[in-house]
Amino acid sequence: MAAVDLEKPFDYVVVGGGTAGLVIANRLSEDSDVRVLVIEAGADRSSDPLVLCPGLVAGLYGKDEYDWNFTSTPQPTLNNRVINQARGKMLGGSSALNFLMLLYPSKGNIDAWAVLGNEGWDFDSLAPYLRKFATVHTPPQSSKDLCGLTYHNEDLAKGDGPIHVTFSEGYNVTNQAWLKTFAGQGLEVTTDPRDGRALGAFQNQASIDPVTHTRSFAATGYYNPEVAKRSNLVVLTETLVEKIVFDTTGDEPVATGVEILTKDGEKKQISANLEVILSAGTLQSPQILELSGIGSKDILEKHNIPVIVENPSVGENVQDHPIVCQSFEVADTTPSGDVLRDPNVLNALVGMYQASGAGPLGQSTISVAYSPLVDGSGIVSPEAKKELLASHEHTLTTPDAQAIRKLVESPDEATFQFLLFPTQVSIPDVPKSMAEYILPVLPENYITVMTILNHPFSRGSVHISGPDIHAAPVWDPKYNSNLLDMELLARGVEFVERLVDKSTPFGKLLKDGGKRQPEGLVATDLEKAKEIVRKRQISVFHVSGSCAMKPREQGGVVDARLRVYGTKRLRVVDASVFPLEPVGNIQSVVYAVAEKAADLIKEDRKSL
Ligand SMILES: Cc1cc2nc3c(=O)[nH]c(=O)nc-3n(C[C@H](O)[C@H](O)[C@H](O)COP(=O)(O)OP(=O)(O)OC[C@H]3O[C@@H](n4cnc5c(N)ncnc54)[C@H](O)[C@@H]3O)c2cc1C
């Protein structure tokens, strides 16, 4: 790459070349008249086989060159365990190390964003952007044969966006049995889940290129070789943004650029003529705001940071999907990813993948189900649901909580997401990295059923731990701090017993009298189910909301055009702006929000 002139001002400076940051950079630099700079802390690893090969993702976690590898504070409702939070530290951010599941949000969920005071952010307004980011491929015949996919609507979301989205060729009897078992519980999907309304089990898509069998993510999609040729787009990797620089001489502070630390340890200032766009992710966008003087006065003063804008909501409102992982030993003939523990098997599969992209390493075979509130007796009646929510009435006073209550009460919205995961999951009290959750340590072969709460009521926080960018922020998710979350989650765990019962197609694939994790614990009643939650709940890695888009007096950090309150020429665009956590896996919403934000920025340029 030719030497970049950093002295010459850029028009837009994007902080963080992750999932959202690269969307913004791509779309803004479509206009050759504007100069765009992206500054990314990690390196460009978009041709690294560990990043590209879907089945080798575990090799990325905990390694400094790929993963920020954050850890929560001890969680009182989880036996004081700490929870790992992998975050991508490379071009493409967390899209470079995620599990590639591609799901779409529900209508009611995104409509609630508008209800919370964000004009223009209802489902129908976001829907075009949910189409824009992806090229959705026709399912292979083998996946139709095994999983039906009768609900898949070919015309719904074809698109020609940069991210490839596809069904797998490698589904097996476990996926098939999963779908049948949910259907037996009255939970069969009949409409395309991408249309904003779906309850039941379905086979989700994945962000994998079906031709190359490689990960399709922000760096390969939005910063592909064609885009990289643009002379008006500069991507600076292995460079840390330390803070945003403001001109404070006017009535409101104006963002004029950033201060960076290069990989050679040199500090520099870079100017932005038009805007600074912060896209450092949910745990680091608030960190950069606080280090720049935007946040709670108490926190900033504690670290001797001059206050530029006082806003105690920065770093608050953090939401995350809690996930409870129960592993079940499989019968000898049932496929399990745990066989990869044998180096001979792994080497043979790597050889197969290298030769032609064939085999399980190029696939994602996780299956999904959405359900309303369920428990050990099946679907909970509307009256019982109302009664449970009413018994926690006193905690449901905020606009957020009221919006979530409506979603839980709605017959169309999914309270739970269940996942079928093809390997065992282990939960150490103090995991060194995400890899410790998913690498097989037990000698038996397992598959895992995961219970996820789509709409947690609890809210956590993330704040700086010192005045320096190198000090990791303190992330306290405060899981189940609203006890209703524990009540709901435990009911979902009770329902799992219905899925693994010997009489179901799924239960028949498990070993008769086989082991389960947590060992010996069966959710025969609510108390036992809660014990399972305490032992086996971790994060789905969907942290969001720390710079929430909301009215300022209701805890907002950015307005409905994603501009930071109290400033000029500064926006946040990443998962941190979500006012409410979306249903299911959230990368589709991050891409869509960033696509919409790019249009807002382009529109606003006309009036600058
Ligand atoms: C392990 C894991 C599994 C997941 N699985 C799925 C899945 O299967 N399906 C799904 O839909 N979602 C999944 N997700 C969630 C999804 O990938 C993320 O929510 C999404 O990618 C977040 O995008 P973002 O733009 O907000 O942040 P990121 O993509 O994380 O981008 C932030 C970027 O900012 C950079 N940065 C941070 N601080 C600085 C600084 N000071 N200076 C310069 N750069 C900085 C970071 O290095 C990073 O590149 C998963 C996430 C993880 C971690």
Automatic annotation (TrEMBL):
Belongs to the GMC oxidoreductase family. This is GMC oxidoreductase. PANTHER family: GLUCOSE-METHANOL-CHOLINE GMC OXIDOREDUCTASE, GLUCOSE-METHANOL-CHOLINE OXIDOREDUCTASE N-TERMINAL DOMAIN-CONTAINING PROTEIN-RELATED. Residues 281-295 form the Glucose-methanol-choline oxidoreductase N-terminal domain. Pfam families: GMC_oxred_C, GMC_oxred_N. InterPro entries: FAD/NAD-bd_sf, GMC_OxRdtase, GMC_OxRdtase_N, GMC_OxRtase_C. PROSITE patterns: GMC_OXRED_2. Gene3D superfamilies: FAD/NAD(P)-binding domain, Glucose Oxidase, domain 3.
